[in-house]
Amino acid sequence: MKDVAEKAGVSTATVSHVINQTRFVAEETKVKVIQAMKELDYRPNSAARSLRSSKSKTIGLLIPVMGSDTSNFFFMSIAQGIENKLKEHGYNLILSNSNEQPENEEEQIKAYNAQLIDGLIMAPTGTDQSYLENTLSGTYPVVFIDRKPQGYDGDCVLVDNFQGTNEAVKLLFQKGHKKIGYVSGALGISTSDERLSGYKRELEEHNIPVLSSLIKIGDASFDTGYKLTKELMEKEKITALLVANNVMTMGAMAYLQESQTKIPEELAVIGYDDYDWAKITTPPLTVIKQPAFELGVTAGEALLERINNPEKIFEEYRLSTEMVIRKSI
């Protein structure tokens, strides 16, 4: 306790009052004490009880959006759903961005640890979240959204990505296509991995060989979507194309329009996410729609349930995608 007092610049009596809530302590001083306790990993049982019972009515949201990526629309829709649900229960939401960088993610979590939040909702970066065991303070619950963490257990609210691409390939088979190209962002996160699995499984169900030459993987960007689509069209002579994220779909459509490919006569196309631009392409684009707002609402509900029932078993919530059929297939 003496070390905590010295680090916070207060007396040991003040530290004791903060821990035991036996006297009023100014909010600024309380924050200094609690931050010192966290940094020194000073956690007697009474401190843990104090931290849990001191409600700030504030929830953190950590998302992985890069400036060049259209996924910010997706995550903003999620944020709106979360905020709507939390407001019903008197909570405020603080938003931060990891920029898809694990080191930024860790830094933002440490910042949240010092802000007395009551819970955290986050879409994790990278492929290994085992470091969270040492980074998360343990004084608030965490709900993961969109991506399933590896190496860390917790409540998850996810989209059924396997279902989305699986149904898309099934639809293309019904239209008579067998040589279906697939364009995806980098693998290693659950969303990309599950979407590729859905594509492969439906091919296997129809006894169609899964050809690596028809599967193009690259960074999730407009330029890469353009480049990989061009490669498939020039080298593989595909009759249908499935693009597994929105920004690469935009790049793919840019190449197809530039090359004057007739859609769907020469190539059937299915993209990902239902944004307004997909309605005004020529022809309007068939897409796999994700329930972003609903995912946010469900995440808010899951976190509130965890706050009220911290001992319950971790749950995984899966929301279904929807095929929005237009004139590109």
Automatic annotation (TrEMBL):
<dbReference type="InterPro" id="IPR010982">
    <property type="entry name" value="Lambda_DNA-bd_dom_sf"/>
</dbReference>
<keyword id="KW-0804">Transcription</keyword>
<protein>
    <recommendedName>
        <fullName>Catabolite control protein A</fullName>
    </recommendedName>
</protein>
<dbReference type="InterPro" id="IPR000843">
    <property type="entry name" value="HTH_LacI"/>
</dbReference>
<dbReference type="Pfam" id="PF00356">
    <property type="entry name" value="LacI"/>
</dbReference>
<dbReference type="InterPro" id="IPR028082">
    <property type="entry name" value="Peripla_BP_I"/>
</dbReference>
<keyword id="KW-0805">Transcription regulation</keyword>
<dbReference type="Pfam" id="PF13377">
    <property type="entry name" value="Peripla_BP_3"/>
</dbReference>
<feature type="domain" description="HTH lacI-type">
    <location>
        <begin position="1"/>
        <end position="53"/>
    </location>
</feature>
<dbReference type="GO" id="GO:0000976">
    <property type="term" value="F:transcription cis-regulatory region binding"/>
</dbReference>
<dbReference type="GO" id="GO:0003700">
    <property type="term" value="F:DNA-binding transcription factor activity"/>
</dbReference>
<keyword id="KW-0678">Repressor</keyword>
<dbReference type="InterPro" id="IPR046335">
    <property type="entry name" value="LacI/GalR-like_sensor"/>
</dbReference>
<keyword id="KW-0238">DNA-binding</keyword>
